[in-house]
Design goal:
- β5 and β6 (about 120-125) form a beta hairpin.
- The chain has helices at about 1-30, 35-50, 90-100, 155-170; strands spanning about 55-60, 70-75, 85-90, 105, 115, 120-125, 125-135, 140-145.
- The protein starts with a helix and ends in a 14-residue tail after the last helix.
- It has about 180 residues and is α+β, with helices and mostly antiparallel strands.
- The longest helix is centred in the N-terminal third of the chain and has 28 residues, at about 1-30.
- The strands form two sheets. It has a six-stranded antiparallel sheet, with helices on both faces. The protein has a two-stranded antiparallel ribbon with strand order 5-6.
Protein backbone atom coordinates (compact mmCIF):
# COMPACT_ATOMS: atom_id res chain seq x y z
CA UNK A 1 0.00 0.00 0.00
CA UNK A 2 2.82 2.42 0.85
CA UNK A 3 4.50 1.52 -2.44
CA UNK A 4 1.28 2.23 -4.37
CA UNK A 5 0.91 5.56 -2.62
CA UNK A 6 4.54 6.43 -3.40
CA UNK A 7 4.07 5.49 -7.09
CA UNK A 8 0.87 7.51 -7.32
CA UNK A 9 2.54 10.51 -5.69
CA UNK A 10 5.51 10.26 -8.08
CA UNK A 11 3.22 10.01 -11.13
CA UNK A 12 1.17 12.99 -9.95
CA UNK A 13 4.34 15.01 -9.37
CA UNK A 14 5.60 14.16 -12.87
CA UNK A 15 2.25 15.12 -14.42
CA UNK A 16 2.22 18.41 -12.52
CA UNK A 17 5.78 19.14 -13.70
CA UNK A 18 4.80 18.30 -17.28
CA UNK A 19 1.68 20.49 -17.28
CA UNK A 20 3.41 23.38 -15.53
CA UNK A 21 6.29 23.46 -17.99
CA UNK A 22 4.09 23.09 -21.07
CA UNK A 23 1.97 26.00 -19.82
CA UNK A 24 5.14 28.04 -19.17
CA UNK A 25 6.32 27.57 -22.75
CA UNK A 26 2.89 28.27 -24.16
CA UNK A 27 2.74 31.59 -22.26
CA UNK A 28 6.31 32.42 -23.29
CA UNK A 29 5.60 31.86 -26.99
CA UNK A 30 2.24 33.60 -26.98
CA UNK A 31 2.40 36.80 -28.98
CA UNK A 32 5.95 36.25 -30.24
CA UNK A 33 6.17 37.24 -33.89
CA UNK A 34 9.87 36.93 -34.67
CA UNK A 35 11.08 33.38 -35.31
CA UNK A 36 14.69 34.18 -34.36
CA UNK A 37 13.54 35.43 -30.98
CA UNK A 38 11.34 32.36 -30.56
CA UNK A 39 14.28 30.06 -31.30
CA UNK A 40 16.53 31.77 -28.76
CA UNK A 41 13.77 31.86 -26.12
CA UNK A 42 12.96 28.19 -26.56
CA UNK A 43 16.56 27.04 -26.16
CA UNK A 44 17.39 29.43 -23.31
CA UNK A 45 14.40 28.22 -21.30
CA UNK A 46 14.36 24.60 -22.45
CA UNK A 47 17.96 23.61 -21.74
CA UNK A 48 17.74 24.12 -17.95
CA UNK A 49 14.29 22.52 -17.75
CA UNK A 50 15.49 19.21 -19.25
CA UNK A 51 19.09 19.43 -17.97
CA UNK A 52 20.59 19.89 -21.45
CA UNK A 53 23.94 21.61 -21.68
CA UNK A 54 24.05 21.99 -25.44
CA UNK A 55 21.24 22.47 -27.97
CA UNK A 56 20.52 23.59 -31.52
CA UNK A 57 17.27 24.42 -33.27
CA UNK A 58 16.99 24.31 -37.05
CA UNK A 59 14.05 25.20 -39.27
CA UNK A 60 13.17 23.86 -42.67
CA UNK A 61 13.97 26.33 -45.43
CA UNK A 62 11.97 25.25 -48.46
CA UNK A 63 12.40 28.49 -50.40
CA UNK A 64 15.20 26.97 -52.44
CA UNK A 65 15.03 24.25 -55.05
CA UNK A 66 16.56 21.84 -52.51
CA UNK A 67 14.94 21.89 -49.08
CA UNK A 68 17.41 22.37 -46.23
CA UNK A 69 17.49 22.83 -42.49
CA UNK A 70 18.85 26.21 -41.44
CA UNK A 71 20.27 26.69 -37.94
CA UNK A 72 18.08 29.25 -36.21
CA UNK A 73 19.40 29.21 -32.63
CA UNK A 74 21.96 27.47 -30.44
CA UNK A 75 22.61 27.03 -26.73
CA UNK A 76 26.08 26.24 -25.37
CA UNK A 77 27.15 25.36 -28.89
CA UNK A 78 29.18 27.16 -31.54
CA UNK A 79 27.47 30.47 -30.86
CA UNK A 80 26.19 33.14 -33.20
CA UNK A 81 28.75 32.34 -35.89
CA UNK A 82 26.95 29.07 -36.64
CA UNK A 83 23.51 30.67 -37.07
CA UNK A 84 22.41 30.30 -40.67
CA UNK A 85 24.48 27.19 -41.37
CA UNK A 86 22.58 24.57 -43.33
CA UNK A 87 22.11 20.80 -43.59
CA UNK A 88 20.55 18.86 -46.42
CA UNK A 89 17.58 16.67 -45.57
CA UNK A 90 19.00 13.26 -44.71
CA UNK A 91 22.41 14.73 -43.84
CA UNK A 92 23.59 13.55 -40.45
CA UNK A 93 21.19 12.59 -37.70
CA UNK A 94 19.49 15.98 -37.71
CA UNK A 95 18.77 15.70 -41.43
CA UNK A 96 17.69 12.08 -40.98
CA UNK A 97 15.31 13.06 -38.19
CA UNK A 98 13.71 15.55 -40.58
CA UNK A 99 13.27 12.87 -43.26
CA UNK A 100 11.95 10.17 -40.91
CA UNK A 101 9.85 12.51 -38.72
CA UNK A 102 10.93 10.42 -35.72
CA UNK A 103 13.00 11.26 -32.67
CA UNK A 104 16.47 9.78 -32.38
CA UNK A 105 18.07 9.05 -29.01
CA UNK A 106 21.79 8.42 -28.74
CA UNK A 107 23.10 6.93 -25.54
CA UNK A 108 26.70 5.95 -24.85
CA UNK A 109 27.96 8.82 -26.97
CA UNK A 110 31.51 7.98 -28.08
CA UNK A 111 34.46 10.12 -27.01
CA UNK A 112 35.21 12.81 -29.55
CA UNK A 113 31.70 12.79 -31.04
CA UNK A 114 30.65 16.05 -29.38
CA UNK A 115 31.90 17.99 -26.39
CA UNK A 116 30.05 20.09 -23.88
CA UNK A 117 32.41 22.75 -22.64
CA UNK A 118 32.57 25.59 -20.17
CA UNK A 119 35.30 27.82 -18.86
CA UNK A 120 36.23 25.12 -16.34
CA UNK A 121 36.35 22.02 -18.50
CA UNK A 122 34.95 19.85 -21.25
CA UNK A 123 33.35 16.42 -21.47
CA UNK A 124 31.15 14.36 -23.80
CA UNK A 125 27.41 14.16 -23.15
CA UNK A 126 25.78 10.97 -21.99
CA UNK A 127 22.72 11.39 -24.25
CA UNK A 128 21.82 13.23 -27.42
CA UNK A 129 18.17 13.59 -28.37
CA UNK A 130 17.08 14.74 -31.84
CA UNK A 131 13.40 15.66 -32.21
CA UNK A 132 11.37 16.70 -35.25
CA UNK A 133 9.04 19.71 -35.06
CA UNK A 134 6.00 18.61 -37.07
CA UNK A 135 2.86 20.49 -38.09
CA UNK A 136 0.06 18.81 -40.05
CA UNK A 137 2.33 15.90 -40.95
CA UNK A 138 5.11 18.12 -42.31
CA UNK A 139 8.49 18.65 -40.65
CA UNK A 140 9.03 22.31 -39.93
CA UNK A 141 12.23 22.04 -37.90
CA UNK A 142 14.48 19.89 -35.75
CA UNK A 143 15.59 20.31 -32.15
CA UNK A 144 18.80 18.60 -30.93
CA UNK A 145 19.75 18.43 -27.25
CA UNK A 146 22.84 17.03 -25.54
CA UNK A 147 23.06 16.30 -21.81
CA UNK A 148 25.47 14.94 -19.24
CA UNK A 149 22.47 13.10 -17.78
CA UNK A 150 20.01 10.64 -19.28
CA UNK A 151 16.81 12.24 -20.47
CA UNK A 152 14.08 10.90 -18.20
CA UNK A 153 10.83 9.49 -19.60
CA UNK A 154 9.11 12.61 -18.23
CA UNK A 155 11.60 14.85 -20.08
CA UNK A 156 11.03 12.90 -23.28
CA UNK A 157 7.23 13.13 -22.91
CA UNK A 158 7.57 16.88 -22.29
CA UNK A 159 9.82 17.33 -25.33
CA UNK A 160 7.44 15.34 -27.55
CA UNK A 161 4.53 17.56 -26.51
CA UNK A 162 6.59 20.75 -26.72
CA UNK A 163 7.79 20.07 -30.27
CA UNK A 164 4.19 19.45 -31.28
CA UNK A 165 3.20 22.74 -29.65
CA UNK A 166 6.02 24.60 -31.40
CA UNK A 167 4.79 23.25 -34.74
CA UNK A 168 1.27 24.45 -34.03
CA UNK A 169 2.48 27.91 -32.96
CA UNK A 170 4.03 28.46 -36.37
CA UNK A 171 0.80 30.07 -37.61
CA UNK A 172 1.36 32.90 -35.13
CA UNK A 173 4.70 33.98 -36.59
CA UNK A 174 4.90 37.21 -38.51
CA UNK A 175 4.53 36.76 -42.26
CA UNK A 176 7.35 39.17 -42.96
CA UNK A 177 9.85 36.79 -41.39
CA UNK A 178 11.78 34.95 -44.07
CA UNK A 179 11.06 31.63 -42.33
CA UNK A 180 7.36 32.15 -41.74
CA UNK A 181 5.97 30.07 -44.56
CA UNK A 182 8.45 27.26 -43.88
CA UNK A 183 8.22 26.86 -40.13
Amino acid sequence: MIRNLRDTTRKNTEQDWLKTNLAKFSRMLQGQKDLNTVGRLILAELAPVVAAQRAVFGVLDASRERRRLTLLASYGSKGQSAIGSQLELGEGLVGQCAVEKEKILLSKVPLGYITIFSGLGAAPPQNILVLPVVFEGQVKGVLELASFERFSPTHEAFLDQLTESIGIKRKDFHQGNRYFHHF
